[in-house]
């Protein structure tokens, strides 16, 4: 996985989320990176692809298949997906 920097031009990039929600079956969604957030020593990617609880650990991939992030949490305020 590539270590991303805050100045990396990921905003509005196409992504594919692949996860196994609750370990039941593979789930794939398309979306875009809609915001970048600095958090401690990490870069949080806000995406517009909806995912369900149990998808943590799923991968976020570029159109070229490069793993750029892992799904970790949703924001409480808006239930907006995010990944680190």
Notable characteristics:
84 residues, six-stranded antiparallel β-barrel, globular, mainly beta, Thrombin, subunit H, single chain
Detail the topology: elements first, then pairings.
Blueprint: E1 14-19, E2 27-39, E3 42-47, E4 59-61, E5 67-74, E6 81-83
Antiparallel strand pairs: 1-2, 1-4, 2-3, 3-6, 4-5, 5-6
Q: What's the overall average pLDDT, rounded?
A: 78
The helix content is: under 10%
Overall CATH architecture: Beta Barrel
Q: Could you give the count of β-strands?
A: 6
CA-CA gap between termini:
11 Å
CATH C-level label: Mainly Beta
The number of distinct helices, counting runs of at least 4 residues, comes to 0
- Supply Rg: 12 Å
Please give the domain count. Answer: 1
Backbone shape: globular
SSE succession: EEEEEE
The biggest sheet amounts to:
6 strands, antiparallel, barrel
The strands making up the biggest β-sheet line up spatially as 1-2-3-6-5-4
Query: Which fold name corresponds to the CATH topology?
Result: Thrombin, subunit H
Walk me through the structure.
By secondary structure, the protein is mainly beta. It has one domain: Trypsin-like serine proteases (Thrombin, subunit H), CATH 2.40.10.10. The protein is built from no helices and six strands. The chain has strands at residues 14-19, 27-39, 42-47, 59-61, 67-74, 81-83. It is globular and about 35 Å long.
């Amino acid at each position: 996985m590539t270590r991303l920097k805050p100045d990396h031009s990921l905003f509005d990039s196409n992504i594919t989320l692949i996860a196994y929600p609750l370990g039941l079956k593979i789930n794939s969604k398309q979306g875009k990176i809609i915001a970048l957030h600095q958090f401690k020593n990490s870069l949080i990617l806000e995406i517009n692809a909806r995912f369900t609880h149990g998808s943590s650990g799923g991968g976020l991939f570029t159109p070229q298949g490069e793993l750029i992030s892992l799904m970790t949490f949703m924001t409480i305020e808006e239930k907006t997906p995010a990944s680190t």
